[in-house]
Amino acid sequence: MEASIMYTTSAQPLMEHPERYLLGRTDGDITLETPDQLCLAVQRMAEQGRRSLWVTSRHLDPAIFDTPAVVEPISRLARSSRHADIRILIQDSDPLRGTTHRLIALAQRLSSRIQVRRMSEKDRRSVAEAFLVADRQGLIHQPQALRYQAVVNFHAPRRCKLMGEQFITYWDASEPDPHLRRLHL
């Protein structure tokens, strides 16, 4: 992983013309500062993803992941192909208990298409970042998972390879979260 990521451009163009940012084509880091900007970046990645969407998140922040703008394209991706690979790693599922979260509800309905797991105890203690990798081309990286400051790049295959390898390491050590399973009565 790179020691530091250079934040080069503001999110204003992304907010004004999101259609100009194409997964696998539009290169250049964009700085994100607000929940709305982060939500739009996740939405654009999910809308354009064709094969995979790998997410690590502290607790699936409702301002980002419990919105129709994000959940609907993830649902379309999951239903688009039986080969779609949607994996979500959560560090802390406690805030999700006893709530109705759209993405968790979708994952429960489409459990064969969307996998949700909890990071290992060791990783939960040591990982401070959150990130999303779409089709191994697009990347959203939050160096501090509890802050909205992030960088997005729609064409960063080398960084996606590194982050994807990190994701797989976390995933292999993760476990199903019994609190997020759907109860069948």
Biggest beta sheet attributes: 7 strands, mixed
SS summary, helix count: 7
* Main sheet strand line-up: 1-7-6-5-2-3-4
The topology string of helices and strands comes to HEHEHHEHEHEEEH
The poorly predicted ranges are: 1-7
| Structural class by SSE content | alpha/beta
CATH C-level: Alpha Beta
Distance between the termini: 45 Å
CATH superfamily: Endonuclease Chain A
Q: What is the beta-strand fraction?
A: 15-25%
CATH A-level architecture: 2-Layer Sandwich
Could you state the oligomeric state of the chains shown?
Answer: single chain
Number of domains: 1
Give the overall pLDDT as a whole number.
Answer: 90
What's the CATH topology name? Endonuclease, Chain A
Overall geometry: globular
CA gyration radius, whole angstroms: 15 Å
Amount of helix: 25-40%
Number of strands: 7
Describe the structure.
- It is a single chain.
- This protein is α/β, with parallel strands linked by helices and 185 residues long.
- It has one domain: Endonuclease Chain A (Endonuclease, Chain A, 2-Layer Sandwich), CATH 3.30.870.
- Helix content is 36%, strand content 18%.
- The chain is built from 7 helices and 7 strands, in the order αβαβααβαβαβββα.
- It has helices at residues 12-16, 35-48, 62-65, 68-80, 102-109, 121-126, 157-173, and strands spanning 30-32, 52-57, 85-90, 114-118, 130-134, 138-142, 150-153.
- It has a 7-stranded mixed beta sheet with strand order 1-7-6-5-2-3-4, sandwiched between helices.
- Helix 2 runs parallel beside helix 4 (68-80).
